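Intended use. Records like the one below are meant for learning the mapping from a protein sequence to its folded structure. Do not use them to infer anything beyond what is encoded.
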Amino acid sequence: MYLRKVRVKGKTYWSLVETYRTERGPRQRIISYLGDTDARTGKGVKAAAEDQPRVSQCVLFDEDLPSDWQEIDLRRVQTQRPRGFGDWWVGLWLLNKLGLTDKLEDLMPSGREDVPWWATTITSVLCRMCEPSSELRIAETLYERSALPDLLGIPVDKINDDRLYRTLDHLLPHKAEIEQHLAGRMGSLFGIEYDLLLYDVTSTFFEGTCTANAAARRGYSRDQRPDCKQVNIALVVSRCGMPLAVEVFPGNTHDSKTVNQIVTTVEARYGKADRVWVMDRGMVSEVNVSFLKEGGRRYILGTPKSHLKQFEKQLAESDWITVRDGVEAKLCPAPGGDEMFILCRSADRTKKEQAMHTRFEEKIEASLIKIAETCTIRKRTPVQVATQIGRLLQRNSRAAALFSATIKEAEDGSARLTWLKRTEWQDWARLSEGCYLLRSNITDWTADELWKAYIQLTQAEAAFRIQKSDLALRPVWHQLEKRVEAHIFICFLAFVLWKTLGQICSAAGLGDEPRVVLDELKEIRLVDVIMTTKNGTTIRRRCITQPSREQAILLKHLGIRLPKQLKVTENVV
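Structure written out for the chain above:
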């Protein structure tokens, strides 16, 4: 929106004009004729039209008062209802920057419902970003304690858990269109090229039986909660960590079984461009490698460490290339020349694995000595000793292959234990410690380029950490399958806002940790100032606290401008 100035017979008149898109191109329409407004009102309208989030209509005009000046009884000045403002305003500003408010309103137009579904969707996303909570807590306390009723104009009594639950049902059908919109918008805002896509899988667990959710299954739990049912979450991000797509799979689905669907979905949605897919070793199977090759797709994949044995000779050679301090790599062409293996060796990883092997070796050896001594003190059968040694090696599998134990039966039927260490295992362990293997069908890149592309996969891992910690993705309390998917999508949208703020902070020289910025700005509060005049008139002003010096610097660098006050609308409280 913008102000259009018109001069007629020496007088200046103003109109509030909105630009909108049509099939024939952009058009303008007049929202309101403002006439010959005074300077104060004109400035207020101009500020609201230029910079502020579109859902925030309450800052257009000041509250109507009997006159511009009133004599206040200072003894009766008071403040009421202090509530969070700064972080919620930033969230709305980010939604506006991404064009997500407009997109949601286009996809979820208002109908007969009291509150538009797009507005309650915004409420859920902002709550997930600023103060992650369940729908019940949002309805009971959080919404009222925030500035959202004033910013969105939705009365407190209109936000209840049932409406928030039903919002999930209305949001999910538009998931693909929203993801496409966000990908395009983030690409234009930050110059992101989706030429390299990072793909990873995590899991999140449920509280409850989840009998109505067919996708809730027990499987490999990244949260160390094998006692709970779970679903797997597949996430695709760009090389800088900006999210592109999210999908949900049953909790017992192996990572490698998700690759075909994810790749196919992304290509159907964004086209089959010349992208590079980066995945960890959990995705690797010969079926998946064949699938990627057949489609002419390029890839960089982690490879199980068991394959290192094929490159024992290359590991012992000295022609390593330093790709980063403490990290070396070398290229090993595969037979046929259509693939390249990349051997990598990390100094930090070497120290870690050496320490682990030493610890487990000492632990196994001390236990074997104790078992052998016990056999000489009291009679034990070979079966009993073999069972105990089996359990010992299972608990310390990192160094189990180092030991070869022999159990013999004495004349009295008791067991006698001897053991030795396999020197060949020790030699291989020392050679391969800290090493890992990648494979790729990109044959014209250097080892340095391939390794750096693969290491970007940490961006996807960081995305999961943020969603599980800062955005409280887990545990999931929803029991219906579609609502679980919608809940995860709400977390995805909040993560988009999070990463967008991170990109803006990074460009402004403020680092790349949005939580620090949000924690600082959330201290900016919205308060009601109640003033009683000498003639008994009560004036209520809804004011924003003055930012501190540090907060003002943050706002300036981010390019965010706060209003000084909001219009009092009694029906929102």
